[in-house]
Write a structure and sequence with these properties.
The complex is a heterodimer of chains A (about 280) and B (about 400). Chain A contains 8 helices and 12 strands. Chain A is of the alpha/beta class and about 280 residues long. Chain B has 8 helices and 17 strands. The chains are: A alpha/beta (about 280), B alpha/beta (about 400).
Chain lengths: ~280, ~400
Amino acid sequence: MRLEQRGDAPFLPQGLSLAASPAYMRPMLKIDNLTATVGEAEDAKEIIRGLTLGVPAGEVHAIMGPNGAGKSTLSYVLTGREGYEVTGGSATLNGEDILEMEPEARAAKGLFLSFQYPVEIPGVPVMTFVRTAMNSQRKRRGEPEISAPDFIKKSREVAAKLKLDAEMLKRPVNVGFSGGEKKRLEIYQMMMLEPNFLILDETDSGLDIDALKTVAEGVNTLRSPERGMLVITHYQRLLDYIKPDKVHIMAAGRIVKTGGPELAHRLEAEGYEGILGEAV
Amino acid sequence: MTTALRDLIANPTAAELELVARYGMLPEDARRERAFLAFAKGGLPHRRVEGWRWSDIKAALGAIETPPQVNAVDPISPSGAIHFAFTPTGFTWPETLPEGLRMLAKPEALAFGGSEDMPLGALAAALSGGGRKPATLLIEVSGKDLPPVHICYSGAGEANFARIQFVLRPGAELALSESCLGGAGFTGTLVEFLLQEGAKLRRTVYQRGSTSEVVAMTASAELEAGAEFTQTTLTFGAKLARLETHVTHQKTGAKATLNAAYLCAAGFHADITTHVRHGAPACVTRQLTKGAVLDGGRGVFQGKFFVPRTAGQKTDADMQHNALLLEDGAEVFAKPELEIYADDVECAHGNTSGALDANQLFYMRQRGIGEAEARALLTEAFIAEALEEAGELEAVLRDEARAFLQKA
């Protein structure tokens, strides 16, 4: 295994201690030998099967994999969706075990999932929704609530950057939005809530190339040394716009191959079968 | 009590005997007698009577007693409104009324045509009045641009009955709100509307009571050509609260909007029952009822559109009822009915009940909104659509719904 200059700590062979590595090298999100099932008791199916992964602050990692690899399941397990049960292993964000937390507590710790299919919420205007979310998070962290004028000011700035119509923010969340609008609204929420760690689940699905560029630009503005990102995607295309530091290939519930951005290009050329055949 | 009186109701319950006694104490009046006899024929409606299967008044109203006192505050206060109040001990009204509004406080009961179909309306017609209360309050509306009228029924005691008749002259317009805050063991109101040609009425009803009282609010509306009747109800129920509205489209081109929301906590029962008769061609009815019920609460929706063969042609009517069962143990009973004999009509109905959407809940929680708050927000948004026609009062109704849901 070839070690790169930075951020490789999570990929050290098992048994090696991380204690000696400097703080910036320690992963922000650390998943260790995670196993998880979906479904009720007897019908429960193991989807995540001993997954180990680490994403340091400041890095963008991509997870690619064929249908059914467990990519979306991983995002739901990490964010605490009901119906997904962790049966082994651990996941920490900045050293804190997140798996025991309620979804809203994980969000307050700075974990943000951009949904593959953002959910429509009739009757709840975007502004109300985001302000409620922001203040709920702040309250949970013991911070003061944001005032209405401050919120509106911030919202205006973010909307301007994303070229979002102010009218759109008065409409109910995602109701009647096009695929591209929904994804842009996800980016708006990210920029408003300023999470520490982003999981983008198939953000490219349903987007034409122009919408994809806008969305990727938004994501790129959020790249920072304090923030980690996990980009889940099917295709290499998105990674032309959101350049990852690392690419992980996921199959059958675990990471089977890790490499640099070139791995995504190889995947595009050789397909999953070629690469997976080699990995197994 | 005389034997003759006692025998008016077969095998009377304690509550029915009390009602008979109250009737016996009121001044003699042939129309009052007719209304009471109509009620007495069946007594308090119970679960074996069609239309009362899920709202057994007889069982809920064991005896008529003064319930523990709750100091209810009326949240409805339309700006510049003219206030009327009915309590078990009296009736208050403004000293002067603006031009376009005329009031007659009549000591005698007027004939009530709906006795057969609305037994609790008949009861209110028979028992309203006495003391400082009119048997019938008649309000004639002949102007537009009138200040809103607000009526409050409240106050402690055993029972409180009120009856009001509105006549809206051709082209008249009025915003009317009614708060029924209960407080008495049994509150019964009967409000009748006649909307003459082109008249418009926006009626908002707010009802809240305790789990030791029974409330029956009955209303009937007759709509003449081009008249518009827009009703929005928000009810939190009581031990049993029945809010029943009968609308008759009498002339072509009338329009009725009958929206309602019910929110029931443990021990509360709210019943929205409506009957719309399309007795003239080309009339429109829009009905949307939304409900949300917690563990131990019970919501009832019964809606009926009746469209006769000839008179009902070109009817355009839509009835929707959607309920949220917020917790295990919540109960909702629904009976949407379309009885159509005309062949050239557009009539539709929809009826759903279910839980909150798990995808929506997770999406909100992922953004950091706590589960309880997410549930409250989603439920409020769900209910809100039924309050959209309340005009100026939409905001206060929504505030009330929100306050309830945030505590739930």
